[in-house]
Specification:
268 residues
Length: 268
């Protein structure tokens, strides 16, 4: 981003040290939105902390959602991992790739979190009549339905373990979580409650680099991982669905089939 965006490494002189006013701004808003919603607050307060969030409508390519070269740089080139964290993640990915029973064994990442256990976490998760959240039991049945080989290596984004997953290890014995992969000397800096953000980063990169990615919930994390996979050429994303088909190709993400994800505007 050097020469494109001016970034202050240290806080400029004259900027107030008091707590900044937080303003939430959706990604991709117009100049008119900034002028009417943000600028008045800035004029009144003098300094702001702006938090942006990605609206689902902006993830899909379409009229009015044109992606500029600058936004592509910001999304896919502006942030880099610290050396220690990058080395740890690469070692975890290598462990996943080498832990299969043979060289052709698949490495599958499943985004499965606490909210996917039991039925309460997925209640009411429908968009236009389509289910957008699946329980741990649903995911186990989905893996069986599409006939994922027993030799496959499966990574779960879950923190810790749930006894209900014991049935998964009976079918697929090579199952891993962060806790089974992170080196002992990296547990405190990367997996402690105080460094929770590192857990999300680890999950993000492991899910982005897997042979197959399966989301249990179609949320913001899912959308950003899909974008990263498009950027790096890892295209196989399977969305669970209430279908009788046993063919994995029938569950490929619509983002991939229709090339409708905003990342395709950056990587033709």
């Amino acid at each position: 981003m050097k020469g494109i965006v001016k970034i202050a490494i240290t806080q400029p002189l004259g900027v107030s040290t008091r707590q900044l006013t937080l303003v939430r701004v959706p990604s991709g808003v117009s100049e008119e939105y900034i002028a009417s919603k943000v600028q008045p607050i800035y004029k009144k307060k003098g300094s702001l902390k702006i938090v942006t969030y990605l609206s689902p409508s902006l993830v899909t390519k379409g009229e009015g959602n044109d992606t500029t070269s600058l936004s592509c740089l910001a999304m896919f080139e502006s942030l880099q991992l610290k050396a220690e964290l990058e080395k740890t993640i690469l070692s975890m990915v290598e462990m996943l790739r080498s832990s299969g029973q043979n060289s052709s064994s698949l490495y599958i990442a499943v985004d499965l979190k606490d909210e996917n256990f039991g039925n309460k976490g997925c209640q009411g998760s429908f968009i236009n009549g389509r289910k957008t959240c699946y329980t741990a039991h649903d995911i186990i049945q989905f893996l069986k339905k599409i006939r994922i080989e027993r030799e496959a290596t499966i990574y779960l984004t879950l923190d810790g373990w749930h006894d209900s997953l014991n049935s998964l290890t009976e079918i697929y014995p090579n199952v891993h979580t962060k806790e089974t992969l992170v080196p002992a000397d990296k547990v405190v800096p990367f997996l402690s409650p105080e460094t929770y953000v590192y857990k999300k980063i680890i999950d993000y990169y492991i899910c982005s680099s897997s042979d197959i990615y399966i989301p249990a919930k179609f949320d913001h994390f899912y959308m950003t991982v899909v974008g990263e996979r498009i950027a790096t050429g890892e295209r196989i994303v399977l969305e669970p669905a209430e279908s009788d088909s046993k063919n994995g190709a029938d569950y490929i993400s619509p983002y991939m089939l229709r090339k409708s994800h905003y990342a395709y505007s950056c990587f033709c």
